[in-house]
Amino acid sequence: MYSTSYLLFQSLTAVALGDALGVPFQFEKREKLLENPVDTMIGHRSFDLPKGTWSDDTALSIASLVSLSLGFNLNDLMTRYSQWYHYGEYTPFGKAFGVGKTTEDAIKRFDQGTKPELCGGVDEMSNGNGALMKLMPLAFFILTSHHQYRFNDQIANLIHQFTATTHRHPRSLVASGILTNVIIRTIQNPNKYAMLKAIQEALTYYGDKPLYKDQVPYFEQLGRINFLRQSSTQIKSSPYVVDTLNAVFWCLFNSEQYFVAVKRAVNLGNDADTIGSITSMLASLLYAPVTFPPNWLRDLKGRNQIKTAVSFALLSDYF
Question: Which sites bind Mg(2+) (predicted)?
Fold first, then answer.
């Protein structure tokens, strides 16, 4: 296992790289990307922004990291999300964009006085991947304070509280539990077999919980090699939390190098930034130490913000 300081900086950089690579191709149809695959930063397409600009995936990850550096405080967490949404904090150019509706609604509820743990959406349509995009800092936070880590009630409750600030549907909570456990287990043991075991560990836990067992069938395919080895034509890349996890793990299990996994993710199209961001983060852990493509790093905006957030975290007692 590499040092926390190295992996945390690498992971947050990877979040931003996958995000920025995918931003111009959000909503892009896969057929067009098959004709002209993405492998470099490009600007001025979906959101007409300079190349290398990150979106909500990275901004919310930075906001979460800074908040967790002061301890687990959901009011502080939502205050930072609100500052991002209204004032463009944690962004390269001082403006939030690409905000998911469920996250936006949650922030508005918080602004109106709703308790942070009750801000998240609970209906069937509130199962977007905004539940997943900000979990990496939480995984490092948990691992730092739980040296004998096990995916149990204490850990699951912590993940659920964190996720419920924006997404409270049981399916989103299960998805967050799965991904957080995979991140932690991959930090501890960076190989694909450990990832599969982590998925199964979380599914086994949720299968024994009356509140969540009905959600398990939505995710059981993640532990099946035949699902992970199928053609990309069978993989959806929508913002739906189930589709996002399917796409991320498909990309990882069909790649043997960091940059290959990330390019696969972005070239799936549709929600290219979030799928690219999560895939990039996990691939950076799976293949650590990673040498990021120099041209990606060169074009990435806001690199000092990433360094500052990580430095702040590492100076705290929580990372």
Answer: 55-57, 271, 273-274
Question: What is the per-residue DSSP string for 168-198?
Answer: -SHHHHHHHHHHHHHHHHHHHS-SHHHHHHH
Here the tokens at position 180 are 């957080």
Q: What is the dihedral sign for C-alpha 130, 103, 72, 175?
A: negative
- pLDDT at residue 48 tops 90: no
- Beta bridge partners, 240, equal 128
Q: Which residue, chain included where needed, has tokens 């999560």?
A: 278
Query: Domains in the chain, please, with CATH?
Result: 4-314 (1.10.4080.10)
Is 271 labelled a binding residue?
Answer: yes
Q: How confident is the model at residue 33 (pLDDT cuts 50, 70, 90)?
A: confident
Task: State which H helix or E strand residue 136 sits in.
Answer: helix 136-145
Check the annotation: does 55 bind a ligand: yes
**Single-letter amino acid code for the residue at 46:** S
Question: Cα separations (Å) of 81 from 107, 118, 167?
Answer: 7, 15, 14
Token pair recorded at residue 316? 């705290």
pLDDT at 305 over 90: yes
Q: Is 56 annotated as a binding residue?
A: yes
